[in-house]
Amino acid sequence: MNAVLLQILNGLDKGSAYALIALGLTLIFGTLGVVNFAHGALFMLGAFTAVTLNHLLTLEKVVVSQTETTAWGTPLEIRTPYAEQIFGDFGQFLIDYSVPISILIAIPVMVIIGIVMERGLIRHFYHRPHADQILVTFGLAIVLQEIVKAWFGANPIPTPAPESLRGMIDVGAGLGLQPGSVIYPVWRFVNFGFSVVVIAAVFALLRFTTFGMVVRAGMADRETVGLIGIDIDRYFTWMFALAAVVAGCAGVMYAPIVSPDYHVGMEFLVLSFVVVVVGGMGSLTGAVAAGFLLGILQSFASMNEVKNLVPGIDQVIIYLVAVVVLLTRPRGLMGRAGIMET
Amino acid sequence: MAKLIMNRRGLLKGGVAAGAGLAAPSFFVRPSWAQTENYLNAPTGGTVTLGFNVPQTGPYADEGADELRAYQLAVEHLNGEGDGGMLNTFSSKELQGNGVNGKKVVFVTGDTQTKSDAARASAKRMIEKDGAIMITGGSSSGVAVAVQGLCQEMGVIFMAGLTHSNDTTGKDKKANGFRHFFDAYMSAAALAPVLKEEYGTDRRAYHLTADYTWGWTQEESIAAATEALGWETVAKVRTPLGAADYSQYLTPVINSGADVLVLNHYGRDMVNSLSQAVQFGMKSKQVNGKNFEIIVPLYSELMAQGAGEAVKGILGSANWDWKLDNAGTAAFTKSFGQKYGFPPSQAAQTCYVQALLYADAAQRAGTFNPCGIVEALEGFEFDGLGNGPTLYRAADHQCFKSVLVVRGKENPENQYDLLEIVKVVPAEQVTYSPDNPMFAGGNLGTCNPGA
User: Fold this and answer.
1) Which residues pair with B294 in a beta bridge?
2) Which residues 295-324 of A have a C-beta within 8 angstroms of B?
């Protein structure tokens, strides 16, 4: 029971990351009709926003010692962070809370990156075959990865959550189970809650605002919306920027869980594509539902009891589910007719 | 006419017989390869080319960059540039800083990408196109085993870089291949007494293991060593290589009754699994009335940097550390630190040492013929290269030397001071017999000079 509860929590946490990336992928595919393989790179860039802010806040004043030397004979450098020097305790607080603060910075940064990416490159590929779109976006992802690697190195960079959010929540005690049997890190709850809020906000934007109404109309019939005098391209550019923000924020929130390195987005991207396919190309609800479903299935498949029955099942479960879904429901769980079928 | 021919034949026969007779003593004292230039990529000009095959892209690119720095330093020292580094402390005094066998050392580089096929392709390119006489480097056992096999087939020497699987000098050992770095068995043998001293003999261990050759041998070695102490192994769980989030493998540990978690992971796998285990409160909880403990059998400086705060207090093992107190270490750290501005990693040290050992063997053998190198390195005993007295064992081409037990430092003084040395375990305590079951199978075979 405890093990099952813990795996449900794992699945929800993992699923929230899949759902956020898959949501962004679907937004772009549904509006612009582009299969964006650079989406994982946007997740990675978000994570590196947190890394960059942390680096900036921990920039150090270097004083070269006149008397002491290092073990290899060069003068010893004494380092003190500027933030601490200038702001004292508040500087310490800023460093500690650098990940949540990064969300505020990631939003405008990702909007700019999204618009530049869409206007500068992707729009030239709207009328090209999907294979071309995949190639160019995949190439772009590699370029972005290599730039980040050249700057930050290949090694993962520790990006801890704030001290006050590093503890554990005893879920078991709250449910009347034995205390300590179902414990879960606070930050993973924060991450899950954040994802739910973002998903809700995106749905609300599309459902309850004029902007959302125009976008939905554009998704259904781009030409007609254009004919009534709406510059739908401009709306879709903003949707691309929104998708970039969603992926970037997911990256920031995931940074304390998986230490960011240049490759972090790629791992999530492949899984998220499977999520999109399982959920149904173009279906936002499908993407979110499939994200959580596959996250939970992956967690359960990793239980020792399951692995003992079917060795290696944890490594293939997601793909197995994809195969079964595609065989029984070729359009995915909630796919609409006509998407990628022309 | 016929008489003349007979005479000529007789003369030739006599000449050959006399020549063979005169040369006979030197045939017996000098191996047949000594003056033989009949081997692959025999250097003909004034230079000899070494092939440095390191990860320049991919997840181990930073470790590869450090290996390359070390190789460049070694080449400088071999050619008489710089301060000479560990050439000054090396027990063998054959190398004079004027190249090797009178030839200036030059090098070419390849990118393993930490992928077996890419590593083999880059090694092949360096051997076939660039005329590399020897291949060295790498950051993975999968790559080491693959490239070692290639070098054996093609007929050049392979001086392994960072590879820790028992298989490299166990079931996959090859006559043309040599490993200076320690192995999984040695890590376990060095750690066991310290684990007993610090955590006692009544423990229940839970293993998470990277699902490939290194992980399997590491798990087998550390489980055998801890079970010999009286520890119980609760579970051995294989995790996919490169999994970013380990939560689904970590939560079952919570209610398993285990009070020790052994992470048989390396690189970013270890960075993520260790950081996440700490996030799940495993460094601060109590199980069975004891403090829960985490062990990382193989440490590296880059892993410690990546895991940050999480490494504090965590025990593991290492091949070498720049803070060791010996003349070789001091000379190398000084040389490396002054050139690059920071101390060398253990990957850098093993690569630098491998380059020097190869050059010294070639100098002693008087040839670059792989069979000459093999004979010079087999059973070679040396000191002054940072690890204390060391033996290159003839039976499996594995170096036997002391092993370090290290711990993540609570209060590091700087970013290069993340690990503290708990114990230097002498070579005798980590030595095993060549027929140890963990190294069973495989055959060293005979050296291949390639031509």
Assistant:
1) B261
2) 298-299, 302-304, 307, 314-315
Give the CATH H-level superfamily of domain B47-182+322-400: Response regulator (3.40.50.2300)
**For position A85, what pLDDT does the model report?**
76
Q: How far is CA B340 from the centre of its chain?
A: 22
A268 has a chain B CB within 8 A of its CB: yes
Domains B47-182+322-400 and B185-318 alike in fold: yes
CATH architecture label of B185-318: 3-Layer(aba) Sandwich (3.40)
Identify whether A337 is part of a domain: no
Interface contact flag, A158 B244, Cβ < 8 Å: no
A6·B252 Cβ contact <8 A: yes
Greatest Cα-to-Cα distance within chain B, rounded to the nearest angstrom: 104
Does A14 touch chain B if contact means CB atoms closer than 8 Å?
yes
Tell me if chain B has a CB within 8 Å of the CB of A16: no
Look at chain A and report how many structural domains it folds into: 1
Tokens, residue A48: 């590196």
Highest mean pLDDT among A84-88, B267-271, B425-429: B425-429
Domain with A182 in it? 2-328
Kindly report the nearest CA distance between residue B370 and chain A, in angstroms.
35
**pLDDT, tens digit, for every residue of B288-325?**
899 999 999 999 988 999 999 999 999 999 999 999 99
Chain A residues closer than 8 Å to B237 by CB: 304, 307
CA distances from B301 to A9, B146, B418 (A): 33, 25, 7
Question: Cβ of B275 under 8 Å from any chain A Cβ?
Answer: yes
Q: Which chain A residues touch B312 with a CB distance below 8 Å?
A: none
Residue with tokens 């009949």: B38
- Measured in degrees and rounded to the nearest 5, phi and psi for residue A37 equal -80, -5
Q: Do B271 and A259 touch (CB under 8 A)?
A: yes
Q: ipTM of this model?
A: 0.90
Instruction: Test B248 with A188 for CB contact under 8 angstroms.
Output: no
Q: Would you place residue B13 in the very low, low, confident or very high pLDDT band (cuts 50, 70, 90)?
A: low
Q: Is residue A341 part of a domain?
A: no
pTM of the predicted protein model? 0.88
| Residues found in chain B | 451
Query: What residues of B are in contact with residue A263 (Cβ under 8 Å)?
Result: 59
Give B210-247 pLDDT, tens digit per residue: 998 899 999 999 999 999 999 999 999 999 888 889 99
Contact A36, A293 (CB under 8 A): no
Indicate yes or no: CB of A185 within 8 angstroms of CB of B242.
Answer: no
How far apart CA A189 and CA A207 sit, in angstroms, is: 27
User: Which pLDDT does position A33 carry in this prediction?
Assistant: 84
Residue ranges of domains in chain B: 47-182+322-400, 185-318
Query: Is residue A333 assigned to a domain?
Result: no
Sign of CA dihedral B239, B240, B245, B248: negative
CATH code of A295's domain = 1.10.3470
Residue A259 within a domain:
yes
- Split at pLDDT 50, 70, 90, the class of B427 is very high
- For tokens 């001293």, the residue is B197
Residues of A in contact with B322 (CB under 8 A): 71
Interface of A with B in 207-236 (CB under 8 A): none
pLDDT in tens, B16-29: 454 444 444 444 44
